[in-house]
Structures are given as C-alpha cells and as structure tokens.
Write a structure and sequence with these properties.
- Pfam families: p450.
- Belongs to the cytochrome P450 family.
- Helices cover about 45% and strands about 10% of the residues.
- It has 15 helices and 12 strands.
- It has helices spanning about 30, 35-45, 65-75, 105-115, 120-140, 150-165, 175-185, 185-190, 195-220, 230-235, 250-280, 280-290, 295-305, 335-340, 375-390, and strands spanning about 50, 60-65, 80, 145-150, 310-315, 320, 325, 330-335, 395-400, 405, 415, 415-420.
- A 5-stranded mixed sheet has the order 1-2-8-5-3. A 3-stranded antiparallel sheet has the order 4-12-9.
- It is globular.
- The protein starts with about 25 loop residues before the first helix and ends with a strand.
- It binds protoporphyrin IX containing FE (HEM).
- Protoporphyrin IX containing FE (HEM) binds near residues 73, 265 and 378.
- Protoporphyrin IX containing FE (HEM) binds near residues 118 and 373.
Length: about 425
C-alpha cells in the first residue's frame, strides 16, 4: 500500500530529529499523514507531560501517558471542561455551549436528561433495527469492484442511526453528517479545513431544522401523542432541559454534541476496523475462524483507532503532574491516541490483537464524569456490522492506503477504496 502524500503538503521531519521542546503534537498533518505514532512515542518516552509555549492554539500541555490521562480525566475538580473540550477555542461569533463542555452541577443535570436514550432497554430495542439497516446497506454493495467504504457503508450507517435517535426526517439524514463535519472542522478548533461562511451557514441550517422539529414534537405532544424515545422528545419532557429552546447557545450546542458524538466516532471505528483487518491479516483469519471474538475485537479496534484523539481541560489551580508544575489557567490536552499506545499499560500497543485480554481497558471513551454516554451504542453498531459482514463476505480488501481526515481531534478517514469477495 502506498501513502498518498500530496505534493503541496509539508513533509514532516523525523520525530527524533527535532528539539524536544519544539515538538508540536497539535499539528493536524501528524494525523492526515499518519505520522502521529512516532511523534507521540518520542514524547511519551522523553517528556510525557510536555509543554509547548507557542502553537496556532496557544500554549498548551500535552498529557501523553495512560495513567496520567486517567489522573486528569477523573479529576474534574481541578481540570475543568469549561469553556470547551477541543484544543482550539470556539469561535465567539457562533456562541455554543453543551454539557460535554460544562462542569457539575449543570453537566450532571443535562447529561441525566438525555442519558436514557442509550439506556440498555433502548439499546436492546434498537438492535433489530440496526441489524436490518446494516444488512440492507451491505446487500446493496457492488461485489468484485472497487468502491469507497467510507461513504457507502460507514457514513451511511451512522447517518441512519443518527436519524433514528433524533427521529429526524429519514430522507434528510445526510445533513446530520454534514453538520457534524462542519461543527468540528474549523481550522481554529482542530486544524480542519471548513470555510467560515460555509460552516456558519451549515450551523444555521442545523438550528433552523432542529427548531422546527422541536416545535413539531411539542405540538404533537400537546395534541395528546405519547412521549417518543428520541433525544428531542426526551429533552422536551425533562425538567432541566424542557426550556432549552429558549437558550439558543445550549440548544444548538447540545444537539451538535449528540450529532458529533454519534457520528465521526462510530463512522471512523467502522472504517478503522476494516483497515485493521487488512493490516493484520492473521487477525482477520482468526476472526473468520471464530466470530465469537467480535465483541472483544470491537473494543480492540476502538482502542487502536482512538476516533477522538484528544479532549482538553483548563487547570483551575496550580497542580503538579509528572514532576511538572501546571499553572492555574493553563490548557491541558489529554492525548487519548497516545495513552492508547502506552506500552507501560498495553502490551504491543501498535498491534491489533483481537483476543487481547482486558481489551476494554482503553482510553477512547475517556474516564470520569464525562465518560462517553454512547459507548455501548457505538460498540453495538460495530459488533452488528461485523456479524453481518462475516455472514456475507470472505474478504473486504483495502485497495490503497485510505485518505485521512486533516484534524488533530477527529482521528479518521475521508475515503477508503475496498473490494469485496462474497462468501464461497
Ligand atoms: C463523550 C468517544 C460514541 C455521545 C465522549 C468522550 C469521548 C467519546 C472521548 C469524552 C470523554 C471524556 O471527556 O472523558 C466516543 C467514541 C465513540 C463514541 C470513541 C464510538 C466508538 C458515541 C455515540 C454517542 C456519543 C454513539 C451518541 C449517543 C457522547 C456524549 C458525550 C460523549 C453525549 C458527552 C458526555 C459527557 O460530557 O458527560 N465520547 N464516543 N458518543 N459521547 Fe461519545
């Protein structure tokens, strides 16, 4: 497989040739050119709590080892999620806020209001629908000819699921994916490439659509319809969130959070799982021979892929970590992608080992009060996808190195050509 490095892209230096203090782990090219592993390896070994005094995102600390990340993530009294959890600072002209970017008590109230949408009872009810949808997607794929797995499968499935959990008009579901990409794709947030005007228009469109949906649902409840188990209806019927529509920055922010939460992450895990089975063909053989390994493989893939590379915090007081003094007000970035490659905690971390013991002990869902709300839903989608793939195909062959997203936040793929071999 050949890495497609475009000619006008900067060519990154060897990670070991740079002065340590100049290493910039927020450079999105590390991710789009798939060079992040070597850079993080060096910092993990030589300067695990690393300070960069100047970057496009301002000065920031990088936390790169597994145990240090857990220590920061579980200490929300010192490490605040406010005002935002991506390395960049939000654009002040688009005022949004959401519960992933809030500390207690507001965080806890708003999370509690929507949590039941992914309660075990609801997930069990969703299982058949997810299987039906993934089956329909897989049955329509071209066999024996190359096509893009990202748009045909990963995006299609996640947009259908999002439309379901929001009870959003099904035929307009692709808008959800587009809005999500726009929400995280700003250069100042993640080093992405979304243009400000397009981004603004997209987010505006999102607010208008959801406002209409919110009002329609409220009207139908008033007319006597029972409460649905979709996110909007749950928010409308909960005391802490029922008037969210009157607080536009929270309304837009929380909906954006749920769209982004359920979109890029699952999409990139699905693509990453196919890539991993190609990079580690012995593991693919093991999986074909024993499909009971799928649930463990799902956790291993989510670790290996780490769909969100980082979350950031702000120190609320001076605190020492790894022998360094983090000052009140400093920006602290927990690099989950690096912690998940920390050989101090995970044996052979660069390898995908689908029957790895304790595979669920990874950082991809975070730790502490903000631990991913949709983790079981994400895992379930991936599990069902693989159960259905193995029923139909002997091989999903990746034809060339995928194109990767230009972002230090979303660790994923924009396209990946594959060819299917049906089951003999
Ligand atoms: C929070 C990753 C799927 C909704 C998070 C966090 C991470 C994450 C890293 C922040 C954790 C922290 O700060 O400690 C992932 C990954 C997924 C996934 C890797 C799939 C493989 C989903 C899905 C949903 C979702 C399907 C949709 C319901 C959320 C929400 C939060 C969150 C609402 C905020 C929780 C809070 O602040 O209390 N996720 N996520 N996620 N995720 Fe996920």
């Amino acid at each position: 497989m050949i890495d497609p490095v475009l000619t006008d892209e900067p060519s990154l230096a060897d990670a070991y040739s740079l002065p340590l203090e100049d290493i910039n782990l927020s450079d999105p090219y590390l991710f789009s050119q798939n060079r992040w592993e070597e850079y993080f390896q060096r910092v993990r070994d030589e300067d695990p709590v690393h300070y960069l005094k100047d970057s496009p995102f301002g000065p920031f600390w990088s936390i790169t080892r597994f145990e240090d990340i857990v220590a920061v993530d579980t200490n929300h009294e010192v490490f605040s999620s406010e005002p935002f959890i991506m390395i960049g600072d939000p654009d002040k002209t688009i005022p949004i806020t959401n519960f992933i970017s809030m500390d207690p008590p507001k965080h806890d109230e708003q999370r509690a209001a929507v949590q039941s949408v992914v309660a075990p009872r609801n997930l069990a009810a969703m299982e058949d629908l997810i299987r039906e949808r993934i089956s329909a997607i897989l049955d329509q794929l071209p066999v024996g000819k190359s096509f893009d797995w990202v748009s045909s499968v990963s995006m299609e499935l996640t947009s259908q699921m999002l439309a379901t959990i929001f009870d959003f008009p099904y035929e307009e579901r692709h808008k959800l994916v587009y809005w999500s990409d726009m929400a995280t794709g700003a250069p100042e947030l993640s080093g992405g490439t979304a243009e400000p005007e397009e981004r603004f228009a997209a987010l505006n469109d999102m607010v208008n659509s959801f406002t209409t949906l919110w009002k329609q649902k409220a009207a139908s409840r008033k007319a006597g319809s029972p409460v649905n188990f979709d996110l909007i209806s749950l928010m409308e019927s909960n005391e802490d969130t029922r008037d969210m529509i009157t607080r536009p920055e929270e309304f837009m922010g929380n909906l954006g959070l749920l769209i982004v939460g359920g979109n890029d992450t699952t999409r990139n895990s699905i693509t990453g799982s196919v890539l991993a089975m190609n990079k580690f063909p012995d593991q693919f053989a093991k999986l074909r021979a024993n499909p009971k390994l799928i649930p463990n493989m799902v956790s291993e893939i989510i670790r290996w892929q780490t769909p969100l590379s980082h979350m950031r915090r702000i120190a609320k007081r001076d605190i020492e970590l790894g022998g360094k003094l983090i000052k009140k007000g400093d920006k602290v970035v927990m690099w989950y992608a690096s912690g998940n490659r920390d050989e101090r905690v995970i044996d052979n971390p660069n390898q995908v080992i689908i029957d790895r013991a304790n595979a669920r002990h990874h950082l991809s869902f975070g730790f502490g009060i903000h631990r991913c709300m949709g983790n079981r839903l994400g895992e379930m989608q991936l599990r069902i996808t693989w159960e259905e793939i193995l029923k139909r195909f002997d091989d999903v062959k990746v034809m060339e190195e995928p194109e990767r997203v230009h972002s230090n936040f979303v660790n994923g793929y924009s396209s990946m050509q594959v060819k299917l071999t049906p089951k003999a």
